[in-house]
Amino acid sequence: MLRWARQRARLDAAVLTTRFPKLVEWEREERQPTLKQLENYAHATMTPVGFFFLPQPPEERLPIPDFRTLGDQALGHPSPNLLDTIYLCQQRQSWYRDHALAHGLPVADFVGSANLQTPVEEAAAAIRQRLGFNLDDRRDCRTWEDALRQFIAQADTAGVMAMCSGVVLNNNHRKLDPDEFRGFAMADPLAPLVFINGADSKAAQMFTLAHELAHLWLGQTALSNAEAVAESGEDVERWCNRVAAELLVPAELMRAEIHAGEPLEDAKRRLARRFKVSTLVILRRMADVGALSRQEFWEAYRMEVVRLEEIRRAGGGGGNFYLSQAARVSKRFARALFESTLEGRTLYRDAMKMLGISKVGTFNELGRSLSFPI
Questions:
Q1: Cα distances (Å, whole numbers) of residue 130 to 9, 107, 108, 163, 360
Q2: Which residues contact 297 (CB under 8 A, 6 or more apart)?
Q3: pLDDT tens, 270-311?
Q4: DSSP-derived 3-state class of residue 60
Q5: Are 46 and 80 in contact, with CB atoms under 8 Å apart?
Q6: C-alpha angle 197/47/83, rounded to 5°?
């Protein structure tokens, strides 16, 4: 069980041994940890302490359909960070569904309004119209972050709880891994929700949000990788990828933006800035409209993946906590939760738990940042 907990948390034995010097002896059953040591080990491996007294490891299954693949193969066991993020979003969605029912909020009629036979262009146009997604407005955004913030706000206005975070709750020691998942959608006519892995690049998050919105239009809950170029695997994922690409970079507009004779390096960067998407999406769309051969596309794609991975691992961070917190839980959800708490219908304790906040002062400051008179 000790070994299983370490492997489940994806922690290296050498790293844990610095904190638990007798770990090797524990795993060999040459020694036993004290209860206090076991509690500390449970905390370090993000494992409920009761699990260590089971005769064998429990089978942990994802509570939502899993469409993630790597080379056409399903990915392995989910990490504690992924599981806890999904459980938390399920809790938030359940709360918001009850809130919507109690207040008679309108049903999100776009959930389930499309199917796999719906033409990609038609589905993308429907999403664009519902969100008020204006490509010229996005072009005028100064940065990818501004464009992403605008995209999330448009989804929020349309009735989607769009949550974007790179950590579990507000715990910066529990970072989400983009290599494990990019996002997920939880379809519900009263409380549609999408979660975007905020540890990914801003440009990649743009595609993830578009992909997860396509899942909502199908009325489907799913965990996915949202790869811009993926054309294998589930029919659902292929359809969502195509809709996301058409939503962000319409083929007709892409053809008009291509300049004959322009070097590929210059073109992909110019078009990425124009559409505020990843250069990988641009390469895919260039191939879609015939501006790149299949061989040219794959050569450029492999080189670009390496370059972007180096940039992502270099990292970054910082920013205003309260702005980040609102994005992590969605402004739609946060406003509803604050309103309910101030009116006495939700306990402060429960509201703060769903927000990942431990201090009342922080809770009140977040409310003020959302224009609540606290």
A1: 40, 14, 11, 19, 37
A2: 283, 284, 286, 287
A3: 999 889 888 888 999 999 999 999 899 989 988 888 887 777
A4: coil
A5: yes
A6: 30
Helix axes 294-314, 279-288, angle to 10 degrees: 170
At 52, list the tokens.
């260590």
Burial letters for 259-297: b for 16+ Cβ neighbours within 10 Å, e otherwise? Answer: eeeeeeeebbeebbbbbbbbbbbbbbbbbbbebbeeeeb
The structural domains of the chain, with segments of one domain joined by +, span: 2-52, 62-70+78-248, 251-313, 321-369
Is the per-residue pLDDT at 314 higher than 70? no
Cα–Cα distance for residue pair 174/98, rounded to 1 Å: 29
> 4 CB contacts (<8 Å, ≥6 apart)?
57
For residues 195, 287, 237 and 223, what is the CA-based torsion angle, rounded to 10 degrees? -30
- In whole angstroms, give the CA distance from residue 328 to residue 168: 10
3-class SS of residue 40: helix
Average pLDDT taken over every residue of the chain? 88
The answer for 217, left when phi > 0, alpha when psi is -120 to 50, beta otherwise, is alpha
What's the token pair of residue 16? 């844990």
Check: CB of residue 244 under 8 Å from CB of residue 188: no
Alpha carbon distance 323, 302 (integer Å): 35
Three-state DSSP class for residue 184: strand
How do residues 26-69 score in pLDDT, each as one tens digit?
Answer: 999 999 999 999 999 999 999 999 999 999 988 888 889 888 76
